[in-house]
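Suppose you are handed a protein chain with no further information: no name, no annotation, nothing but its sequence. What can you learn? This example shows the usual starting point.
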Amino acid sequence: MAPELTLDRPVSIMSKRFHANKAEYYKLLREQEPVHHGRMMGPVKATFLSKYDDCVAMLKDPRFVRDRRKATGGRNKMPFPLPKGVQAMTQSMILEDDPEHYRLRTLVHKAFTPKRLRYLDVRIDEITNELLDGLEPQGTVDLMKHYSLPIPVTVIQEMLGIDAEDMPMFQNGLTALTDGMNGITMLRTFVWDMPKVTKFTEYVIDKKRANPGDDILTALVEAEEDGDRLSQQELIAMVYLLIFAGFETTVHLISNAVLTLLQHPDQLALLRNNMELMDSAIEEILRFAGPIESTKPQYATEDVEIRGTLIKKGTMVMPLFGAANRDPDVFENPDVFDITRKNNKHLGFGQGIHYCLGAPLARMEAKQALKNLLTRNPNLQLAIPDSEIEWQRIPAWHRLKQLPVTFG
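A reasonable first move is to predict its three-dimensional structure. Written in structure tokens, the prediction is:
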């Protein structure tokens, strides 16, 4: 019999032990130390919130900010020059606070019109069916690599209006931005790949200025509010954000959804018999097995006390959505996967001013991907034992390494 898990202190969310026992750790944190001074990775300290109400309150509290300099009074500039692409990333909307965040979000929101989203809904249906036409005859494939991944890649390519002749460079850029942001490859990505990706992004933006199209990148270039427009650096940062937030999240939402349903055959059968439950199923997947388990780090601008625990000014704070979404004070039978769950106020897309702008698109892609996959494959199954499923060890993410399935 395995020994009972105890709450080691400080908890490191990057440790192998935490990674192998996340659900148990989340439960222990909620019950024993809902405000826990732990570590994000290595020596990097962070305070973790695990109760739902605390996470929501913190995300709406102006005393917590994304820009660390506002909390610590640090330098406005780095002591060394950053590569151009990295500079653009530091200007991303998801790292800004109001009023700058509001300004950027207002401009970007103009690009996500209902008409454009309606078109994408039809296009995603076509993309998923075209992919399945080519995949199903193969019998067994890595669904994440060959289905979950190409869907948002194609959608983002078309959203940005990337021409066919530019697709190889676009694909290389995607690989650099997504696969190169972990471990020892990060240095090469920042120093070598990012400048090339930035140069390509500038080239695409210049093409849109010269030859506007009916696409979101053109809409971002032309977006204006009271004479204000996005700068070149802000446009580059927005392209990166579309890739990171709109692409990475959707890949893993689709993959996690398929795996979760295959692991719960009663719920899968219920969904197959009533596809009208698809919207509810997507929300429950976001709660139960969502790909994002925390936000970008926030920082306290003053001493703040939560549940009797002092969070000092300048402290990095991370709300643990993976824990909050299983909080029994908010969700009845939280460890039960139930696609008919009502009033599902999960935090899968965050909360507050940084609530995910691309949430409607991610839901749309996941819905079409699941609907067509399940409708066309009534006997879909895992191609490996459930015990062999592997997850990537990345802080704040719940991401599979691969998902081998057999069509049928």
